[in-house]
Amino acid sequence: MSDIEIAQRANKQRIVELANDRFGIAPEHLEPYGHFKAKLSLDYIDTLKSRPDGKLVLVTAISPTPAGEGKTTTSVGLCDGLNRIGKQTIVCLREPSLGPCFGIKGGAAGGGYAQVVPMEDINLHFTGDFHAIGAAHNLLAALIDNHISHGNALNLDPRLIAWKRVVDMNDRALRNIVVGLGGTANGFPREDGYDITVASEVMAIFCLATSLTDLRERLGNIVVGYTRGDRVPVTAADLKANGAMAALLKDAIKPNVVQTLENNLAFVHGGPFANIAHGCNSVSATRTALKLADYVVTEAGFGADLGAEKFIDIKCRMAGLNPGAVVLVATIRALKYHGGVAKDALNTENLAALEKGMVNLERHLHNITQHFGLPCIVSINHFTHDTDAEVALLEEKVAALGGVAVVAKHWADGGAGAEALAHKVAEVLDGPAKKPTFVYPTSASLWDKMRAIATKIYGADDIIANSKVRAEIERLNESYGDFPVCIAKTQMSFSTDPAALGAPSGHTVEIREVRLSAGARFVVAIAGNMMTMPGLPKVPAAEHIDIDADGNIVGLF
């Protein structure tokens, strides 16, 4: 059966009853969206503050390939596996974006018998969080142009407006546009553009905010542009926009509660991609789960060079989180791809290619243990065509690196297939407590922070930027030098070249653009040809998605 067919046949429990039975969350603390999804009230979350925290494990992966790795699937399977061995566990995931759902990737709620449900709802409109984020973002964009049209009392320079518009859909035609055409009634013409909603600073703020008050303050700190002449920053608060923006987000900020196929609780909330944003579940959801459960499984987007780095250097630094272990997801198929095997030949045993591709896993493992300072378990996400010899070789190579690899079959067998992984993770989490180490200190300059990530994590020799970008980095460093940096880079490679597989070294990372996210409290550095508005492929997944006569969605992964 396909993923969606498995999900549609799931024995779901009413979410209000499930939350009450498993964690004693009274029905009045949940705001149902139908029978199987709900939001958790902020008032209830406030009552949990005095409780001790459970133990946190981060799930990340090797560099993504067309062969697939299965990070979300592993996160769900591990949650189910931990619950099966008696560890009360909640999984915290990111919300899917419509762009990839209708583009290349398809659905993003796990796979096989390790999924969160209702799968179709989660992948499509869910509880409307992304719509609220897009509306709040575009409200600010509308207020900027309206302010200029009505006299521009703040003296905003139309040439220096830094706030684009957003839409939750891949649409390359919107990357660069001109607004304000059609005469004086329509404002002043200027160049503008669209990003995908998940790249919005509002999304980042939404994921990092700890309360409604914190959310409103962060929204007010957004720098939308600069004044003529003296380049004084103009903020959303200057435009009196942050109150209305917060009002649009008042429900969205509440964590979403759903369930796995095995009726374990899942918090699915927030979702910036780690190649263009920080790529983590919301702080609110993660913290809440830690107060409720003994163990919490969370994920970070794409490979460990992106998602895990940002999880540590941005989310953990800001929120004070201390993951006790990291699960590094790898597939034999993906490692063979890194070893030079074409996608259509990955089902054939190839020990030489597997060994060659191991360099990608090796670098990620080294980064996690040496630069992040955390114990790491390699999870081999098992596929049907994996041979015993390939599995044995991978286990042998990981052991030679001083690590441990565990075969996990949760895709086929659900939580039962992840019990071995669950036992190993529990063993590490129940050992001596660990605190992550950061790749760079807060006191380093923005340029040195970017260089530290590139040289330590990406294996680069150095970073470069043209004189205009260098000058902008130096200008930002004067006021925002204590901010972390969020590097937007291709997820396909340690370098900025998506075709450079394995573990390229000695390359140079070009910083092409920098963007200030003053509300989120980090600086975005765009490296190489990374786009913050992706395009659709020649044959988008949307062509295969449909609805039958009974109203059932088909073709969604």
Low-confidence stretches: none
Distance between the termini: 11 Å
CATH topology of the largest domain: Rossmann fold
Q: How confident is the prediction overall: mean pLDDT?
A: 96
Q: What's the number of domains?
A: 3
Total of helices:
19
Coarse structural class:
alpha/beta
Give a count of the beta strands, DSSP E runs of length 2 or more.
Answer: 24
Tertiary shape: globular
CATH class of the largest domain: Alpha Beta
User: Could you estimate the helical fraction of the residues in percent?
Assistant: 25-40%
Instruction: Estimate what percentage of residues fall within beta strands.
Output: 15-25%
CATH level 4 superfamily of the largest domain: P-loop containing nucleotide triphosphate hydrolases
Biggest pleated sheet: 12 strands, mixed
Q: What is the name of the CATH architecture of the largest domain?
A: 3-Layer(aba) Sandwich
Radius of gyration: 23 Å
Task: Describe this protein's structure.
With 557 residues, the protein is an alpha/beta fold. The chain folds into three domains: 3-127 and 252-429, P-loop containing nucleotide triphosphate hydrolases (Rossmann fold); 130-248, Domain 2, N(10)-formyltetrahydrofolate synthetase (2-Layer Sandwich), CATH 3.30.1510; 446-527, Formyltetrahydrofolate synthetase, domain 3 (Roll). It is built from 19 helices and 24 strands. Strands 1, 2, 3, 4, 5, 6, 13, 14, 15, 16, 17 and 18 form a twelve-stranded mixed sheet that branches. The chain is globular. The N and C termini lie close together (11 Å). The model has no long low-confidence stretch (mean pLDDT 96).
